[in-house]
Specification:
Blueprint lengths: L3 E13 L5 E9 L9 E8 L4 E3 L1 H5 L37 E3 L3 E13 L4 E5 L9 E9 L18 H38 L19
Antiparallel strand pairs: 1-2, 1-8, 2-7, 3-6, 3-8, 4-5, 6-7
């Protein structure tokens, strides 16, 4: 039996997983949560945002023409679209300028990260088609074997494997050793500066000339 529900697309936010990776998560308010659980792979169907009449560069990703050698108006042009005398026509389905967006789109391989039962929300990893408050159809496909749940609010510890822990400890140890070496070098530099000052002989004090008594004092 296919697990399927409909819902409304809400805003996309950034969240952290328990292994410390930041991912985009889109919330979907659905009618039913039955059959869904974190770690499911989903297929989400919706209507993409309409972009109006667009050229071939935006619509199909064409590179455009050269920007130099006298080509002043060919930077976003499609180029040649036809053939020679045979067949003497343009084949149907040719990629050209036209209306883009506003089409039915299905995205598969999306991971369900978390379920909020109180507000009937599905937190799905990645971006979803359509505008905010747009209608979506969410279908359960299969389960994701390497699923890592989201970090809970207020949680600071990052879960890591033994290899990642050893690598982190090694980097921390190297950083501490470098800091100690820098402190020792700084102390040696200060001591050498003090010794150099001691070796320099003080200049002999110059004798000030005695002032002659004025006539008024005599």
């Amino acid at each position: 039996m296919t697990v399927k529900t409909t819902g409304l697309k809400l805003k996309t936010v950034q969240k952290f997983t328990q292994d410390g990776h930041r991912i985009p998560v889109t919330a979907v308010r659905v009618e039913s949560l039955a059959g869904f659980k974190p770690g499911d792979l989903l297929k989400v169907t919706g209507w993409s945002k309409g972009k109006g009449f667009t050229g071939v560069v935006k619509r199909w990703g064409f590179a455009g023409g050269p920007k130099t050698h006298g080509q002043s108006d060919r930077q976003r042009a499609p180029g040649s679209i036809g053939q020679t005398t045979t067949p003497g026509r343009v084949f149907k389905g040719k990629k050209m300028a036209g209306r883009s967006g506003g089409a039915k789109v299905t995205i598969s391989g999306l991971v369900l990260m978390e379920i909020e039962e109180k507000e009937k929300l599905l937190l799905i990893k990645g971006l979803l088609p359509g505008n905010i408050n747009g209608q979506l159809i969410v279908k359960k496909d299969k389960e994701f074997k390497k699923f890592v749940p989201l970090m809970k609010v207020g949680e600071k510890e990052i879960k890591e494997t033994e290899e990642e822990r050893q690598e982190r400890l090694r980097k921390e140890k190297e950083a501490e050793e470098k800091m100690k070496e820098a402190e020792v070098a700084k102390e040696e530099k200060e001591e050498s500066a003090v010794e150099m000052k001691k070796e320099i002989k003080p200049e002999e004090a110059k004798e000030e000339p005695q002032k002659e008594p004025s006539n008024a004092e005599s």
